[in-house]
Design brief:
The chain is 51% helix and 6% strand. By secondary structure, the protein is mainly alpha-helical. The protein has three domains: 53-254, no CATH class; 277-411, no CATH class; 422-458. It holds the Pfam family DUF247.
Length: 459
């Protein structure tokens, strides 16, 4: 720092000090500066999330892996170490089958390393792993998943008595069932683009005769839990846009086709919630089980509400909760399952609603009591914002509400239920009608005889 005094005359008789500050170079970047530079808004590529705290408080275990970890969020968790050894075995088997001119482990590392920035951008949280650590984890997890799908296609799960063919993942039913669930948990995903790249690169290790797409192999794997028809597995997902991960792929496979992607031309009016199943029944709306490719394909026409059959067990509830959580976190997807959750939570408000839907073969309850079903759907829509007018069921909500507001439907159904709801009430009503008719006939005869002229009475 240099200072220089100016002349008193030149400055109107006042002394001024001119201070020159030298330019500062080589300023050290602090951790705070680095954090500010690295922080950026999430873009569309960010598609794998830590679940919101309000959803975690309802059921933390639903979104986190129980047996196998995939990706960085639960990498190294102690309770997931058992399957890590199987991952290395699967990788060894894959490399052993690779021809001499096929890809090596170093080749897979280079493929993933080239995608490192894209991979990190897919996660909502900062990944603390080093470049080498991230590459190793993604190679191991990705190839393990591909091997899992491929082995399942070639050797369906069955107890093996051959020691060389023994694989606990397939031979132990509880292990296989938990792995299926873990691969669709939101916090246990990795980018589908990475999986597709590793799948393409490892084709030589699987044999050129393997023509199945990665999407089909993945859906065949999940089909061991959900048992859906072959046409679901063979459908083309190109219309869905870029699939983000396995949960996203599975979600697309449950959405009714064809799906209209075109934006709505004008804002829709505010749509109100519908009444419970029991109240709708009393208003004259009939319920019927609908044969459909997916359980969210619901229809309403002329007072008939057709709802596909759904089996409510631990597997289905885990799937629904992860679908809803993904739709809430990722704004670039439709809200099909959030809308379905809102629809079912409207229908099911009391145990009587559950009992009625079970009688209609719409709901098959393996959760326990009817109260547990009510509790599940109440929590499924808890703290989940939704504008029904933007959902795929907006017209159904509108039509059901209009039908329910028609008082003629309500009065007729009330009359029908009161007098014809049970065999005893029907017999009572029938007896009352017969007595009324006999009374009317008797009254007519009495009046007729009284009004008859005297000369006719003598005859």
């Amino acid at each position: 720092m240099n200072s220089q005094s100016s002349s008193p005359t030149a400055n109107g008789g006042r002394d001024h000090a001119v201070i020159t500050i030298a330019a500062t170079t080589n300023i050290q970047t602090t951790p705070l500066d680095q954090r500010i530079q690295e922080t950026r808004w999430r873009n569309e590529s960010c598609c794998i999330f830590k679940v919101r705290q309000c959803l975690v408080e309802i059921n933390k275990k639903t979104y986190q892996p129980h047996i196998v970890s995939c990706g960085p969020y639960h990498y190294g968790d102690q309770h997931l170490e058992m399957i890590q050894q199987h991952k290395w075995k699967y990788l060894r088997d894959l490399l052993a089958r690779t021809p001499s001119n096929g890809p090596t482990l170093d080749h897979y590392r280079q493929v993933v390393a080239a995608m490192e920035e894209e991979i990190r951008g897919c996660y909502s949280e900062t990944i603390s792993l080093s470049s080498d650590g991230l590459v190793e984890m993604m190679v191991l997890d990705g190839l393990f998943t591909i091997q899992l799908f491929y082995k399942l296609k070639r050797f369906p799960p069955a107890p093996s008595h051959d020691h060389d063919q023994y694989d606990p993942i397939f031979d132990l039913k509880f292990l296989f069932a938990n792995i299926i669930r873990d691969l669709f948990r939101l916090e246990n995903q990795f980018p589908f683009s990475l999986l597709q790249k590793l799948f393409d690169e490892s084709k030589a290790s699987r044999g050129n005769s393997d023509s199945s797409s990665l999407s089909k192999l993945a859906l065949q794997f999940f089909n061991y839990a959900f048992q859906r028809p072959d046409q679901v597995l063979d459908q083309d997902f190109s219309a869905a846009g870029e699939v983000k991960h396995l949960l996203d792929l599975l979600r697309w496979s449950f959405i009714p086709k064809p799906y209209d992607h075109s934006p709505q031309e004008k804002p829709r009016p505010q749509i109100e919630s519908i009444q419970s199943a029991e109240k709708l029944r009393l208003a004259g709306i009939k319920f019927k089980t609908r044969e459909a490719m997916t359980f969210i394909d619901i229809r309403f026409c002329n007072g008939l509400l057709e709802i596909p059959h759904i089996v409510l067990d631990d597997l289905c509830t885990d799937l629904l909760m992860n679908f809803v959580a993904f739709e809430q976190c990722y704004t670039h997807r439709s809200k099909h399952f959030t809308t379905y959750a809102a629809f079912m939570s409207c229908l099911i408000r009391t145990p009587a609603d559950v009992s009625f839907l079970c009688d209609k073969k719409i709901v098959e309850n393996y959760l326990g009591t009817d109260e547990e079903v009510v509790h599940f759907f109440k929590n499924l829509g808890k703290d989940v914002p939704l504008d029904i007018g933007e959902g795929y069921l907006w017209k159904l909500f509108k039509d059901v509400n209009e039908y329910h507001r028609n008082m003629w439907h309500v009065r007729w159904e009330g009359f029908r239920f009161k007098y014809f709801g049970t065999p005893w009430s029907f017999l009572s009503a029938l007896a009352a009608v017969i007595i009324l008719l006999l009374t009317a006939i008797q009254a007519f005869c009495a009046v007729y005889e009284y009004a008859l002229p005297p000369e006719l009475k003598k005859h």
